Amino acid sequence: MAERLTSAESPLVKVIGKPGSALAHALRDFLHRSDIPFESVQVTTDEEARAIAGVAHLHDSRLPVCVFADGTRMECPTLRQILEKLGWFKTPSRSEYDLAIYGAGPAGLSAAVYGASEGLRTVLIERWAVGGQSGSTSSIENYLGFPQGIAGAELAERAREQAEKFGAEILLGREGLRAEFMPGSGVGYLADGTRISARASICATGMEYRRLDLPDEERFRGAGVYYGAGASEAALTRGEPVFIVGGGNSAGQAAMHFSPQASEVTLVIHGSSLKETLSKYLVDRIYAAPNVEVLPCTEVVALEGDEELREITLRDRKSGRERKARTRWLFICIGGVPQTRWAVEVGAVRDDAGYIVTGPDLACVPHDHARRWPLDREPYYLETSLPGVFAAGDVRHGSVKRYASAVGEGAMAVIFVHRYLTGG
Ligand SMILES: Cc1cc2nc3c(=O)[nH]c(=O)nc-3n(C[C@H](O)[C@H](O)[C@H](O)COP(=O)(O)OP(=O)(O)OC[C@H]3O[C@@H](n4cnc5c(N)ncnc54)[C@H](O)[C@@H]3O)c2cc1C
Whose CA is nearest to atom 39 of ligand 1? Predict the structure, then answer.
């Protein structure tokens, strides 16, 4: 029978798809991160596909179907169509801004709030939804002022509202591809051809989840293999075994989030103990949860399935022994790689791992002579090797990879933007 799971009492959108649909997963992920109440309906037979989704059969290319509260129906919609329907697809209103911010994670959102509230004509460009990495987490428990914790999506949505209240323009579903910087101005080129001109820029593009690099990993992406804490999928795992790879706080949070629904949650970790990598409050909760098991010194080495993931192979890193486990749910939370492709072409200095180098670190990290800091004054603390271009949050070399630090750096970057713009 079709399974219905609702994220709120009055869903704004119904997403009807078959289990293991990568596009249905992407739509759920976007709606979840955007804090939009939705209902997920999984159809499993041709009859259900006809009766509930109004398509010919279960493998009809018109699936997934989205139905909005006002009756609007969209077949196999793109992100842009969804954004347009929500009234969130914006065209830049100005030919030039004071400040362009790339990436709407905590660092970018914070920069947008401070930039716009302090009178800068500010635009914030985000390739997916607001919130960044932690948009997929069910509860951020160490952010100041929220003793009971707060969902990443809720925190991000509040920040989005706040930034817009102060007049920041937010362009969602638009990816910054490359940039050109001249003294006093910069131009960002977005994937859809839009050109953004600004007197100063902040790169807050953060990190993207690291892959396991297994054969078929891409094939099962969104169809059994998920990255991050997977809050949008949690309800769908009811009564089924869930595997999480990773021993950091994000993996621990995910384990605790899945445990009330899943039949059992297995945390697969490289090391011998969680205590080396996880905050104590999470270690205590994980060991107290009856259906959470920790598999130390273990790795996932193979994925198998048909249209969706069915089975994984686990290898004991000490003995080399392998065993198979049946599951449709593998969540990968093993950190990330910085999103700095644009910086290569434009010549901004990066460290060996690809993080953007700023301020005093520019004097310490080796780089070629051509990329030397070009001005008489020293670079500001969060300024990259390109004057007027700043970096904040996880994307920055040496940053503390925490929500609060990203928010702090976003706010701090705006102070340096003011100094740069006033020539101070
Ligand atoms: C599952 C999970 C749970 C976490 N929980 C906690 C927690 O409880 N407490 C805590 O302190 N920290 C937590 N963290 C860490 C915290 O989320 C990060 O440190 C923080 O999100 C970094 O913020 P950021 O803005 O620098 O980058 P990100 O959050 O990575 O955001 C970057 C944004 O830039 C966008 N982007 C990238 N490239 C482009 C481009 N070319 N054009 C446009 N947009 C682009 C991305 O889509 C993304 O939205 C967690 C992380 C994860 C993964």
Answer: 205
